[in-house]
């Protein structure tokens, strides 16, 4: 009986083929697993090295941007610090100017807020501000700018008030009768008590007498309105000008009158000519200044003539008195007389004599 070889068994062959197929599948799966694991490991290793690289790049970009921003901020803070320094210099300069103007005008200058801001203990030095980008923040410099701007505004308001005071004072001085009414400054008779050359009685001479040739132009000592332009007993041909605030000037003994009642007159305008009308002993101008009806010495207002002009003045040889005194003023110290303007006027019209 013939034995069958085991190697020739179909069953065994089939089993072997199945085992080989299974082994191939297992190996394939194992290979795939290894491949996947290797890929994951490689990816993990690559990611581990790439992430720090991307982060460093981002940090470099951010660092560059921060550097640019920091430079921009420093530049602007430096510019702001320079502006603060310049503005503080202007405050100091304006304070000095205000003091000089106030002193010249005789006005008391007090600005505590400005003085406090200029105090070394309460304000930074200009050098510190101009070079203080490291010490001063933009916000702090902004506040300093606001403070200085407010102080400049306050000083502007104060200077505006001073300007108003000076304007009013200038207006008052402009209205003063400080223009010499004739070109011949020789005074033949001063203001005050004297023996009247016509009556011989001791009376108050209420003005100044200027000796001058007949026909010499007579000029208004200040601007105003003509309130008299006629012949008045004693005064002769008279021009009276009202300047406001109770102030009146009179020009008497004229030979002719060149204005009429109600005319508006400018300072220095010719209004008449020297004569000897009325109660007079010779050609001259009788000039009066009255405040609220009270006679004032015109020398308080008129400027002092030069000695050379007085020396060559016509009529000096035959006059009674010397030239105008050296203490004649330019009228500035007489501004206070205008304060009497509120008093009721007393006999502002010429006295008929």
From TrEMBL:
Taxonomic superkingdom: Bacteria
Basic and acidic residues bias: start-end ranges: 342-353
M23ase beta-sheet core domain sequence ranges: 204-298
InterPro entries cross-referenced by the UniProt entry: Cell_wall_metabolism_enzyme (IPR050570), Dup_hybrid_motif (IPR011055), M23ase_b-sheet_dom (IPR016047)
Protein name (database record): M23 family metallopeptidase
Region (Disordered): 312-353
Pfam families: Peptidase_M23
GO molecular function: metalloendopeptidase activity
Gene3D superfamilies noted in UniProt: Glucose Permease (Domain IIA) (2.70.70.10)
Membrane-spanning parts: 21-42
Keyword line: Membrane, Transmembrane, Transmembrane helix
SUPFAM superfamilies assigned: Duplicated hybrid motif
């Amino acid at each position: 009986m013939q034995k069958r070889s085991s190697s020739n068994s179909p069953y065994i062959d089939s089993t072997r083929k199945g085992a080989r197929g299974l082994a191939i599948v297992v190996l394939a799966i194992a290979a795939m697993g290894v491949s996947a694991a290797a890929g994951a490991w490689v990816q993990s290793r690559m990611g581990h090295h790439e992430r720090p690289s991307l982060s460093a790049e981002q940090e470099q970009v951010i660092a560059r941007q921060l550097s640019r921003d920091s430079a921009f901020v420093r530049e602007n803070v430096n510019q702001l610090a320079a502006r603060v320094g310049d503005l503080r210099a202007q405050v100091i300069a304006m304070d000095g100017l205000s003091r000089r103007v106030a002193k010249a005008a005789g006005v008391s200058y007090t600005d505590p807020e400005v003085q406090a801001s200029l105090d070394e203990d309460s304000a930074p030095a200009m050098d510190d501000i101009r070079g203080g980008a490291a010490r001063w923040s933009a916000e702090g410099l902004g506040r300093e700018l606001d403070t200085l701007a407010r102080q400049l505004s306050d000083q502007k308001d104060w200077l505006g008030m001073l300007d108003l005071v000076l304007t009013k004072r200038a207006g008052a001085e402009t209205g003063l009768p400080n223009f010499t009414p004739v070109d011949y400054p020789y005074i033949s008779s001063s203001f005050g008590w004297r023996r009247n050359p016509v009556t011989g009685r001791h009376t108050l001479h209420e003005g100044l007498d200027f000796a001058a040739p007949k026909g010499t132009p007579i000029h208004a000592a200040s601007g105003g309105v003509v309130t008299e332009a006629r012949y008045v007993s004693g005064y002769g041909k008279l021009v009276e000008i009202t300047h406001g605030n109770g102030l009146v000037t009179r020009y008497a003994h004229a030979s002719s009158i060149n204005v009429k009642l109600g005319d508006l007159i400018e300072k220095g305008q010719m209004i008449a000519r020297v004569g000897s009308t009325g109660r007079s002993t010779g050609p001259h101008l009788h000039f009066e200044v009255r405040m609220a009806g009270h006679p004032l010495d015109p020398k308080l207002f008129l400027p002092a003539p030069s000695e050379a002009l007085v020396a060559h003045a016509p009529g000096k040889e035959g006059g009674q008195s010397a030239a105008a005194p050296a203490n004649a003023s330019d009228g500035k110290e007489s501004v206070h007389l205008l304060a009497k303007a509120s008093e009721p006027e007393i006999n502002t019209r010429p006295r008929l004599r």
